[in-house]
Amino acid sequence: MDSQEIIALSKIATLISEEKIISTDNNSIWDKILSNAGQSELFDRFDDYLKPHSYNYSGGRTYENPNPQFGGFFSAIKSILKKVYHEGYDNGEFNKLMASIAENINPNLIFDGDFDEFNKGSIWNNYYTFESFLNKEDEETINKVLRENTTEGYKEFLLSLQVLNFELTFKNKKFVLAPYTESLSDGQGRDVSSIVRWLTTNHPDIASLYNEAVRNYIDGSAVSCITSCRSLITGLFSKFQNDGQDKWLRGLQNFSKDINVDKVTPKEITGGVVNTKYVFPNGGQFNYPRFMFVYGAYKYTCDLGAHALEAPMIDGNLQTETTTVNDAFLALRTVEDIIVWVKSDLST
Fold first, then answer.
1. Minimal CA–CA distance to 228: which of 333, 341, 305, 342?
2. pLDDT per residue over 118-171, tens digit each?
3. Are 9 and 88 a contacting pair, CB within 8 Å?
4. How far is Cα 80 from Cα 30, in angstroms, rounded to an integer?
């Protein structure tokens, strides 16, 4: 049986072929989508099936006709998605393709209902199409309407994206692909926009790092994404240092609520010698779980990010790790959970 990911790709191909998210109404649309994702070779390979029109030239005139091979459009799109997914998931090529597809969603295909009635009976008026509404309204209003007034096809597209670890938002007047990470903030589903708003209001420099990490992830730049996550961790906890302190680990120590953490130094914790100060009859020890969780995330982002090319040399060969987009996804998910933890702790 096909995996859930392959089924999701097939569903996306179905929605595309049925023109429920993208209008394939000219011969250049898939040339643009694939070329913008660095997959022009695939357009050349499948172009006979990706063009809805054929042209005949007679008597000095050009005649447009339906392309008989366009009947294979669904199979061509599915083959393209599967090929890039299998060959380009780890190196970010699949991310680029899905981002290019997202940017070409036709807004007028995804609105559910009579837009004239919606326009007339709401505070949003004077818009001739749903596309013009998206181009002029604020992002918070737009994303609310996209959750409540869109077609089943669009919602199925969103669910298929989630299976593939993506979600879709509307930002800067276009649809933007983002990594899907489900948080536990306020007991609700993931709401990255609230996290970004909190960071932007309280720590705009950290918000910039978070947005940079997301952009790098979508671009398929795994090492750059993880490096941004590392800077985010150190930058965020640097803000919790006391006057005179100059190490982010001091800020983490101050923020952590671990038992006994205020009686030792960060170096003693990270060096693994902290429990030599105490001898328990039953062999117990202080583990500093909160401190070590964040420090472990930092080490992860060092080893697969900024220091990814530092490794032991064995028989003349450098034994480096290969950083993948899935590794970057884990880093993003972890730092988002850390941000939620900090945000929630400060609010209580």
1. 305
2. 776 555 556 778 888 888 888 888 888 888 889 999 999 998 998 888 889 888
3. no
4. 11
